[in-house]
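Q: What changes when FE2/S2 (inorganic) cluster is included in the input?
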Amino acid sequence: MTNPIADVLKSETILVTGSNTTDNHPIFANYIKEAVFRKGANLIVVDPRRIDLVDHAHIWLRQRPGTDIAWINGLIHIILKENLHAADYIRERTEGFAALEKAVEKYTPRHVSEITGIPVPDLRKAALMYGKARPASILYTMGITQHTNGTDTVMALANLAMVCGNIGVEGGGINPLRGQNNVQGACDMGALPNVLPAYQQVSNSELREKFSRAWGVTLSDKPGLTVVEITHAAEAGRVKGLYIVGENPLLSDPDLTHVKAAFEKLDFLVVQDIFMTETARAADVVLPSACFAEKDGTFTNSERLVQRVRKAIPAPGEARADWEIISALSTRLGYPMNYNNPREIMEEISSLAPSYAGITYARLEKEEIAWPCPTLNHPGTRMLHKDQFVRGKGLFQAIEYAAPAEIPDDEYPLILTTGRVLYHYHTGSMTRIGRGINERCPESLIEINPADAQNLGIDSGMMVDVSSRRGKVRVKAKVTDRLPTGTVFMNFHFREAAVNLLTNPALDPVSKIPELKACAVKVEAA
Amino acid sequence: MITLTIDGTKVTVAENTTILEAANSAGIRIPTLCYHKRLNPIGSCRICVVEVEGYANPMTACTTPVVDGINVVTNSERIQKIRKESLQLILVNHPLDCPVCDKGGECTVQNLVYEFGIETAPYQLQKVERRSVYATPLIRFWPDRCIMCLRCVAACRDIKALGAIDVSGSGYDSQVSPVNVDKCESCGECLRVCPTGALTENLSRYKGRPWMTKRVETTCTYCGCGCQMELNVLHERIIGITTRESKGTNRGSLCVKGRFGYEFINSEERLTKPLIKKDGQFHEATWDQALSLIAEKFSAIKASHGPDAIAGLASARCTNEDNYLMQKFMRAAIGTNNIDHCARL
Ligand code: FES
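A: The predicted holo structure follows.
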């Protein structure tokens, strides 16, 4: 996120897209509601589903799934035509505006309406509401990024924000909410194939040299494989050994049948987890690890705040903290790691990751610190791009709309979109244990629009078979007008109805995020 | 700006400030019960009454805005008497069952009764039997303890914008009940703001009074909001989760997962021993056996196919320190950049 969460209380208009905030980020949703009800902010929701936040929205745009770039460019088109753009800001702080102007020229309200299904008057209202507000904030999540054109869509949103001078100001920004407690931290720490900690490129010899010296080994300059690429490589026999810590790809990854086949080809699979997950079951060795209540460390939240995790109780049986297990294994492989505690690891992180350089456990006892925090007396950075963009000038990118990778046809006439529900988390390995939570939400459902349901002869509570080009699952139907016609929704928390048997592994070419938010399916009464 | 006098001290505050906020800003304490920082003023308990010179009737400080030049007295004998009476009236419908109440020890009603030295409950009007109609599998409602301060109703409305609960009935029959059952998300916001033991957690099989448990500050393990919370520990078990208004972006709030999603920690299904698969079956192993086997297999793969034939997945659930070591392990010990995690999913 470019801005702190609490900043939305200063926004005049808040645009939420591709985020079912009340279910997935309930605390952020509290802030949005407070902004609307107590601070008088305007709320625009752009979502194919009638999510709960729509109840509080001033304008709701219901776009066809996968058509985001079209409506975003459409809003920019109207804002420019109406002269609502921030001319000074564009001149002083950005570049590439002429190209953008040209690119959005053809996204006339009529044209956009045809692509997205959003009525022209609604597009205009939304453009004026966003365009006239200073500052205005944009919030998005996986509903934007889990498409083959996800990276482009994020850049299109950045264009929209910059056109109105909303980046680097309080109450503005473009703010992706992180779905898991430490996605931000895992990225910061370099658990990515192309970068070392703090996004230092493995291909940069100077930076690599710095780590080589600190770690006492020569490092590979060849960027590695991403999650989905690892699966492909395993299937092709190029990856033979896999070590998985705290993940459950056999339920969370797209096109599960394929993932399963790939894992079967591995010579050796190690899974380290707190439960016997679907993935652990497929392992050759399973290592028991400690959960968050049983270890010390830090998580970095969506706002880049680095916050302490503290050990409250001992781990069960012989389970150990992940850092202890990794150290022990490394030592066995002839590369000794001798850390007495996570504090010592943080000291090493601070010495190598410039954005974490000023962060110590001692400071975290007393202060809230968001990175970048380059020195011990730096207060941390709550807002990015404040006086100038990190890269100097904000760069407009001309972005064109392209249809999703898989569009419905006669055989698979519906679009399946996936996500979470309030009561569960990811693959359910933690939330499905609780009797309390499960009483609230015991089973998976497929949500389907009444008109579609009627055509197919389906009622709420009936079991249906959902199939795509890749697989088939059986699940109970819930008929609801939360969904538009032509679109169905399923969550991915339940192994009994593993939605990822159906999803499409087609990737965004830059971010390598799979298109989990749109694939073609058919639904039949079981 | 507006200047007024509180207990002889001149205080200058912004317009639309309440007398209570003005007093707080000057470090003058006015006792409160229904007032809560995160909620719109309710004005139901009258514990915060003060005298304003020139006005015959005392006013509730939490709901009355400041006016230029007024002279406020927060602690006269008359005021003390009114507060004591209000509290005694509240006790008409609140049993002094503190010894068996979960909230004992951190209960605002209990603290006020103690502070005002109330030893008897003189008013014994008609004792109303209230039915317990409002509860979820996670939250228990004790209707007899409810003092109708309406913080819970305000929290559901002001913070969550849900309006699942409200007052129903009138006069002595009125009570808080679910008016919009479908809206309830079991977030526990009502329970959190309850100043007494009328709403308690109904989940943990193990109970511990506040002074028996150890509270360990930590960060929630679910979404990326990074809520700050306290794990309540009794005999090396997590028996509940509490929050503090002053800590973290969540300002005391949590969602259903954060507040009640801790059962997995104590679950019987947790893995407790390393396991090695032989002929399709898992067998318990020692750490030594498991780690030796992994080291042997990975070394062999590396020797015959090179380091890029090995890949690792770190975790968005693990700590920064775990993730740092995991990528260091893959890069330095194995020698490959094949390291990723599920940020994209
Ligand atoms: S605190 Fe003011 S009326 Fe209750």
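Observations recorded in class: Residues 207 and 239 of chain B are 7 Å apart (CA to CA).
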